[in-house]
Design goal:
The chain is α+β, with helices and mostly antiparallel strands and 417 residues long. It is 53% helix and 19% strand. The protein folds into 2 domains: 201 residues, no CATH class; 199 residues, no CATH class. The longest helix has 41 residues.
């Protein structure tokens, strides 16, 4: 048989399969059709919903890390160096790089914080912190701590012996780490800082901030000038944070900084400091995979059962079609086409539900997690993968019951035995 004849025969069989699928959908039980479509919509939404929540959590953690902790790039002193020398001049050069939003110099020193509410020395609370110094005008271009003040005010450049605390240090405003807490420090209270060089000073609590992210809310800040007076140094930095326009381009800017002459300094993208957070994101990825696998099994079973019930009611019709000379392959293909039709309709309506109902709803009413509000993150890649998966499920669910039924004896099928 020539290739042309084979092609014509295949086309003819496909047309017959399409016709049988069309008539089965039109004349079939509307309740079964509706059930299949609704199930496909629900499964499509569930397949995307759980992973998109987990992706939303991951994105929220990454956003908190960049916006309130490390910015995009962290520059630290070289080996055997305590500080970056000439930090202000270096900062000017960094800020002139196209695509850099801003940079901020920090001194970082360990300190002991003591809070004695009654000044009696009996119930004093003490905790250890890594104290950061900031230039407030620089800092607001790099982090968003200033947007998360829940009490008091952010620091001014001229502030001396004033401090702002994260909620985990203050102990209020929903703090979740009592082991780090001063158990209820309020605005205007006086706390004592003992620095690692022996200097001890009293500070007035000017502000308390809460980002909802514990790694950010254990921070404490004083002004750069105040820190320099404590340490007896000037124009240096323990680290320089660099904020760039686009997350994901960090390596390109690190290479640019190297070309500027930063050879000895340690330069890292924010992802190098994720530590425990990266473990959390890996765990979320595993949960996402397990959930998707479970939903696929449920989808395949439910779809199979409904199509099997539908085919069982049509055994007589299938027997008659076989008696009329319609091949098994044509009948099987007709049910696969039906399954693909229901899958396509379910996916289409599911996409509409996701983009016009679910996403707008969760943008307006995000889920309230400990690390902040979390919305759905539904990517096109995720939708495409879910759609392809459901098409495969539909093909399998359409093939197996129709293949089983077409193997039956013609007379048994017609007489329903």
């Amino acid at each position: 048989m020539s290739d042309e004849k084979i092609s014509n025969a295949m086309l003819k069989n496909l047309r017959i399969s399409l016709f049988l699928a069309y008539t089965s959908v039109i004349r079939g039980k509307k309740s079964i059709s509706a059930a299949l479509i609704v199930i496909m919509i629900m499964i499509f939404i569930l397949l995307g919903f759980v992973p998109s929540i987990l992706l939303g959590l991951t994105e929220a953690m990454n956003k908190q890390t960049v916006e309130n902790t490390f910015a995009n790039i962290i520059i630290e002193p070289g080996e055997d160096e305590d500080y970056i020398i000439g930090a202000p001049l270096l900062q000017e050069r960094i800020n002139n790089i196209p695509g850099v939003i801003g940079s901020a110099c920090h001194y970082i020193v360990p300190a002991t914080v003591t809070y004695d509410e009654n000044k009696a020395g009996e119930d004093a609370k003490t905790t250890q912190v890594l104290l950061d110094s900031i230039d407030p005008e620089q800092e607001i271009r790099v982090t968003k701590i200033h947007q998360n003040m829940v009490a008091g005010e952010y620091l001014d450049e001229s502030d001396r012996q004033k401090i702002i605390l994260g909620r985990e240090i203050s102990g209020g405003y929903g703090a979740q780490l009592p082991i780090k807490s001063l158990e209820g420090v309020k605005i205007g209270d006086e706390i004592t800082l003992t620095f690692n060089n022996g200097v001890q000073r009293d500070y007035e609590v000017k502000g308390i901030f809460s980002t909802g992210w514990a790694f950010a809310d254990i921070q404490t800040f004083i002004t750069e000038k105040e820190m320099e007076s404590v340490l007896g140094v000037h124009n240096r930095a323990s680290e320089i944070l660099v904020k760039i326009e686009q997350v994901g381009q960090e390596e390109r800017y690190i290479q640019e900084l190297r070309r500027m002459g930063l050879i000895e300094e340690k330069i890292h993208p924010w992802t190098d400091y994720m530590g425990m957070v990266s473990g959390i994101t890996e765990s979320l990825g595993k949960i996402r995979s397990m959930t998707t696998g479970f939903l696929l099994i449920v989808a395949a079973l439910v779809f199979y059962v409904i199509i099997f019930i539908d085919i069982t009611h049509k055994r007589k019709q299938i027997g008659i079609l076989k008696a009329l000379g319609i091949g098994k392959g044509i009948i099987i293909n007709s049910y696969i086409l039906q399954a693909l039709f229901y899958a396509t309709l379910g996916i289409g309506l599911g996409v509409v539900a996701v983009y016009f109902l679910l996403i707008p709803y969760f943008v307006r009413y995000p889920l309230d997690f400990a690390l902040g509000p979390v919305s759905l993150v539904m990517t096109k890649e995720l939708l495409i993968i879910d759609s392809l998966i459901l098409f495969v499920v539909a093909i399998i669910a359409g093939f197996i019951p129709s293949w089983q039924t077409t193997r039956e004896n013609i007379l048994k099928a017609i007489w329903g035995r």
